[in-house]
Amino acid sequence: MTLEGPEDSARDPGPLELGEEATRALEQIRSADILVGIPSYNNARTIGHVVRAVCAGLAKYFPGERAVLVNSDGGSQDGTPEVVRQAGLHNYDPRTILVAHPTSPVHTIITPYHGVPGKGSAFRTIFRIAEVLGARACAVVDSDLRSITPEWVELLIRPISEYGFDFVAPLYRRHKYDGTITNSIVYPLTRALYGKKVRQPIGGDFGFSGRLAAYYLTKDVWDSDVARYGIDIWMTTTAIANGFRACQAYLGAKIHDPRDPAADLTGMLVQVVGAVFDLMETYEHVWAQDGPSGEVPLFGFQYEVGLEPVHVNVERMMAAFRQGLADLVPVWEQVLAPQTLAGLLALKGAAGEEFNLPQDLWVRVIYDFAAAYRQRRVYHDHLLRALTPLYLGRTASFVLETWEADAAAVEENIEALCGRYEALRPYLLRAWRGDT
Question: Is the pTM of this model over 0.85?
Fold first, then answer.
């Protein structure tokens, strides 16, 4: 089957076969109106709360709908599926399907497909079950959430079931130094490319229509890095770039273990930015068309929330930047335009509050890296790892700029950065086409 979206067509990679237990459960359930998926891997400590919140949300907000909860498990060894069974059926009565990825022979409920272990493979199973059941409205939520409430279910599902949207991105209230990869790269770049102000494009918790789930299944990406760790940005970009109706839902705080932006984030940066750059190649025909970004509808009442602190070590970030200046200039010379590299080298002696990596320089860095990625000037993994010291330098500069700023002023700073990404799009197009 080939399903065409509003703006694109896709090659069907073939049906995903499900395991025997899941197949039997599907034969008994036959159809559903709403489906909520929870991918998991060794989340026994936290997933019970998530399941209870989802079940309460379904019971409270969609009591007349046929609802299914799907736990797509990646081979947990800590009893995660059993926790789901007990949490889901002890206090509530939704139908629950348990699906495990075949990474360990000890599990008794497994899917028969041969996909790479990862969140994307778990999502593919959720999409397939939604398609088989004919679910009209779906959502996925992370299995390690501590802040999820039953209201999340309504906010992710209602825009689809009642208002006809196809994709619901989350909007969280976050500490000003949490999510710096999103704030400095993913949000402003995605917005500048695809024209939609989706604030949390890699938030992890999404709503989507049944027809969008079926469309996702037609994409031949399930043996790629998308199946490992690029699924969030892939879902957001695929929906927006192909003309599906998108909105946001305000979910309050997303409580998780905060990270120091100076910590070892190389792996995450490589994964996320690599996925963004890959998608730029896929959808060049979309973002090459110039135009201003626009708002998307927002559901939910916005309110202030208490946020867990995020500790930052500015000196460690600047030290990583200086080490990059000492070690990586030969690589950067293959990636960056001469004027961009000169701007970075000028920061060699800057220290303390004098250190400032300006927004325009940072945007040119990202655009130069995107062009070099497309032109294969440096092996992709090496290129993306060479971005890490520059990212830490920009993050240090951002912290110094906003140390005394409140949340509103910080958001203004990020919005100004988004404006520079949009204003410098002509620079990107020249670099992308090799005209610089």
Answer: yes
